[in-house]
Amino acid sequence: MSEVIVLDTHIWLWFINANLDKIPSHWLTQIEAASQVGVSPVSCYEVALAHNRGRIELPSTSQEWFQGGLTTAGIDLFPVTEVIAARAVDLSPIHKDPC
User: Which domains occur in the chain, in start order?
Assistant: First the structure.
């Protein structure tokens, strides 16, 4: 079975920055076994905003970090279409962060 995983912003940051101890081991196993791993463009916005506000430190500009955090790491940037946006509203409320 081919599995596609969309990483949450925090999981993406931890994964790229090798903070693997922060990711539950069963999640890490699923990420590594997935046929495709990606993030939403909204995660790029969240990272850039957090960097701009001084909440996180990046070793480069946000755009440069995205190059390494996406292309170099083999993580895809999935589109947010109108269909995805409409269906996302129907997801179970995992937490209060709509992004």
Answer: 4-88 (3.40.50.1010)
Find tokens 């992004």 and name the residue: 99
This prediction's pTM: 0.82
Task: Report whether 62 contacts 48 (CB < 8 A).
Answer: yes
* Partners of 4 in the β-ladder: 36
**Distance from C-alpha of 57 to C-alpha of 54, rounded to nearest angstrom:** 7
Strands 4-6 and 36-39: parallel
Check if the beta carbon of residue 30 is closer than 8 Å to that of residue 5: yes
- Over residues 6-20, the pLDDT tens digits come to 999 999 999 988 889
Q: What is the pLDDT of residues 20-42, one digit of tens each?
A: 999 999 999 999 899 999 999 99
